[in-house]
Design goal:
Elements: E1 6-9, E2 19-20, E3 27-29, E4 33-39, H1 54-57, E5 66-72, E6 80-90, E7 94-99, E8 122-129, E9 134-138, E10 145-149, E11 153-158, E12 167-168, E13 172-173, E14 176-177, E15 189-193, E16 199-207, E17 224-233, E18 242-244, E19 248-255, H2 258-277, H3 281-291, E20 296-298, E21 304-311, H4 324-335
Organism: Streptomyces cynarae
InterPro entries: FmdA_AmdA (IPR004304)
Protein name: Acetamidase/formamidase family protein
């Protein structure tokens, strides 16, 4: 096996993308390229203390900066990009989380309008111990301090949408985007269906950790140093983003209302079992019903995201996505990261 090409990208503040679609590529890469990337946090690094309120230091709608997009040579509609996360490491010793008025699952929002006043703005600064792999919660209104394990992930990974659409980096949909699932951690491979020539892959929105659902709308947001491998599966369609790990296959769905996001993820999992594992549709429906795990990814974004995951050990010994996850794991091991 020849050594993979490695491209290092450290964007300057004016080089981030704020949308999926509508942004020119920052580089053209060949399949098999390793991307060594810096991604800024969702606040573009502007929330640095408890005094830095989002409404005062951030410039709307410029939230959730993305590193990219990357044009993948040979990628065409009907193909799939496979993005393997080799490593996801916080780039700073701190991270920020906030409440944002009219945003989150337990407050009035623009789409769930009520007479109650918005929640007040507040900021929590989390201290990260990158050597010990911990994140320290420090309460604002008491002396409570609780150390939690870090679980770094990327909230936003996606490609350009279909039909000439341009979508805010805050929006999850069939192109990926701001799905905010903790499943997008190191060791996972994300499959994204290509909608335009080159795919136009971008990623950002690093989280040092996040609970399922991202209830208040903001995780432990931090800048990341991330290494990914990008491969191309010709002639393989992926209508909704999928994730494969060593232990699970995982489908995602993003929509409103929440039950439609749930339905999309469950249907995609059923169709995955039919396509790659030899099930009939009804057998897959029955089997998935009794075996699926259904974590919430986010219940706060413009679209909600649900996840449907199934243990590989319970599946027939079949190859999915041409076995690319296992091969990319071998490449990652060879990189020594």
């Amino acid at each position: 096996m020849s050594d993979p090409r490695i491209l290092t990208v450290r964007p300057t503040p004016d080089e981030y993308a704020w949308t999926f679609g509508g942004a020119p590529p920052v580089a053209r890469i060949v399949p098999g390229t390793v991307l060594d990337l810096y991604t800024e946090d969702c606040f573009a690094g502007r929330v640095q203390s408890e005094k830095d309120l989002v409404s005062e230091v951030c410039e709307f709608p410029y939230l959730n900066p993305q590193t990219g997009p990357f044009h993948v040579e040979g990628a065409e509609p009907g193909d799939t990009l496979a993005v393997h996360f080799v490593s996801i490491e916080p780039a700073r010793d701190w991270a920020a989380s906030t409440t944002v008025p009219l945003f989150g699952a337990l407050t009035s929002t623009h789409t769930t309008a009520t007479l109650q006043p918005p929640l007040p703005e507040a900021v929590w600064i989390w201290q990260l111990d990158r050597e010990r792999r911990t994140a320290l919660f420090t309460a604002r209104d008491s002396d409570i301090r609780i150390e939690l394990p870090m679980d770094p992930m990327h909230g936003t990974v996606g490609v350009a949408p279909a039909n000439l659409e341009v979508r805010s980096a805050l929006v999850p949909d069939a192109h990926g985007g701001n799905m905010d699932t903790p499943e997008m951690r190191a060791g996972a491979t994300c499959y994204l269906g290509v909608n335009v020539e080159g795919g136009l892959l971008s990623l950002g929105d690093g989280h040092a950790r996040q609970g399922e659902g991202e209830t208040c709308g903001v995780a432990v947001e931090c800048a990341m140093n991330t290494v990914v491998i990008v491969e191309l599966l010709k002639g393989v369609a992926t209508p909704w983003p999928r994730i494969e790990t060593d232990t699970h296959i995982i489908s995602t769905g993003s929509a409103r209302p929440l039950e439609d996001a749930f339905r999309i993820s469950q249907l995609d999992l059923v169709q995955w079992l039919v396509r790659d594992y030899g099930f009939s549709e009804l057998d897959a429906y029955q089997f998935a019903t009794q075996t699926v795990e259904s974590p919430l990814a986010n219940v706060c974004d413009t679209n909600y995201t649900c996840v449907a995951k199934l243990r590989k050990e319970w599946l027939p010994a079949r190859e999915t996505h041409r076995g690319i996850h296992a091969r990319m794991r071998e490449t990652a091991a060879a990189l020594g990261r």
